[in-house]
């Protein structure tokens, strides 16, 4: 049996409305969404041409004084205020709110945020892909585009589907790599490392020539250990982060190190998304090695920064206590 729980708008005073959501438990409606391997055109004109990207999936996002608060659950598509927004699927409007996050509208598994909804649309209305204007952008000057339901968002710029056409002509850049005593803010000052080591790497991607496309988060990040020559691998590549699906926000500090903010992305490739981890140098013989941290984007561009290090034996024997002598 199909159960539909419908809650209508309630007038507040003379000028405002509280727009409540339609909760629809209809399995067949989910079929109007797309599988993760399927692709679709852009939600703004021209539909079959690539548009500028202001922000990528799973970038770090702050909240007030918390500089590492949550993962960016969609992408930001550059679109000046009052730009027309269209649905990428035929489907039903399942939520409208002109106030939350600057306004948003949801159609199937897609949400369009920072959008002033089309006033002629109501929850329950059907829209046509690339025909119905579902709203216009607000003063954020971009469309925050989300694929997936809350807690199950996927990357619209993934390798095997999503927005098309899309081409990233620019390779990402790994800007620096630092090494820390595991679980502390104490940095190994001369890259002489020992014991358990945290690796922190600042990286970003230039997605396009747009006004904010030169400093976006990356798609994949990892590291590999090489011999002193920098080419002979000592370990397999370790790839903890590939951002196809949004992690739970409680893991944000496993992915991003202190120093990250809205526009600075310092990753922790020695961690895993769901667990604090480390580079265990005790598994290596003391000596000289090279740590290569690599970043990739969805256009298959890549960059690797290789840093020489010296693995030393931890000094775990405390010095003898001083012996006082009478003068």
Tell me briefly what this model is.
The protein has helices at 27-30, 252-255; strands spanning 3-5, 10-12, 16-18, 23-25, 39-40, 53-55, 60-63, 66-71, 75-78, 84-86, 91-97, 104-107, 110-113, 115-117, 126-127, 133-137, 142-147, 162-163, 173-181, 192-193, 196-204, 220-227, 238-242, 266-267, 279-280, 287-296, 302-311.
Plain-language structure description:
The structure is a single chain. With 327 residues, the chain is mostly beta strands. 2% of the residues lie in helices and 38% in strands. The protein folds into two domains: 3-163, Glucose Permease (Domain IIA) (Distorted Sandwich); 173-311, Immunoglobulin-like. Strands 6-9-17-13-12-11-15 form a seven-stranded antiparallel beta sheet, with no helix packed on it. It has a five-stranded mixed beta sheet with strand order 20-27-26-22-23, with no helix packed on it. Strands 19, 21, 24 and 25 form a four-stranded antiparallel beta sheet that branches. Strand 26 and strand 27 form a beta hairpin. The relative contact order is 0.16.
């Amino acid at each position: 049996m199909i159960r539909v729980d419908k809650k209508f708008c309630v007038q507040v005073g003379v000028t405002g409305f509280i727009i409540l959501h339609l909760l629809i438990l209809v399995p067949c409606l989910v079929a109007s969404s797309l599988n993760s391997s399927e692709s679709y055109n852009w939600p703004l004109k021209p539909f079959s041409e690539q548009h500028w990207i202001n922000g990528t999936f799973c970038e770090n996002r702050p909240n007030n004084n918390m500089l590492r608060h949550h993962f960016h659950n969609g992408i930001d598509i550059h679109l000046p205020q009052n730009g027309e927004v269209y649905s990428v699927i035929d489907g039903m409007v399942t939520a409208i709110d002109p106030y939350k996050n600057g306004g948003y509208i949801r159609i199937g598994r897609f949400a369009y945020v920072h959008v002033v909804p089309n006033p002629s649309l109501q929850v329950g209305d059907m829209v046509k892909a690339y025909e119905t204007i579902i709203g216009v952008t607000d003063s954020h000057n971009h469309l925050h585009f989300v694929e997936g339901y809350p807690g199950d968002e996927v990357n619209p710029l993934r390798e095997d589907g999503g927005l098309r056409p899309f081409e990233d002509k620019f390779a990402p850049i790994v800007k620096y790599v630092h090494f820390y005593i595991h679980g502390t803010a104490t940095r190994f000052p001369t890259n002489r490392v020992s014991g358990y080591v945290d690796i922190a790497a600042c990286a970003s991607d230039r997605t396009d020539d747009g006004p904010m496309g030169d400093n976006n988060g990356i798609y994949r990040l990892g590291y590999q250990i090489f011999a002193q020559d920098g080419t002979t691998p000592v370990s397999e590549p370790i790839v903890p982060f590939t951002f196809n699906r949004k992690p739970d926000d409680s893991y944000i500090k496993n992915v991003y190190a202190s120093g990250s903010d809205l526009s600075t992305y310092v990753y922790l490739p020695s961690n895993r998304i769901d667990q604090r981890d480390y580079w265990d140098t005790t598994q290596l013989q003391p000596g000289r090695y090279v740590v290569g941290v690599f970043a990739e984007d969805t256009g298959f561009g890549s960059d690797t920064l290789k840093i020489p290090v010296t693995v030393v034996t931890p000094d775990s024997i405390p010095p003898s206590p001083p012996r006082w002598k009478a003068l």
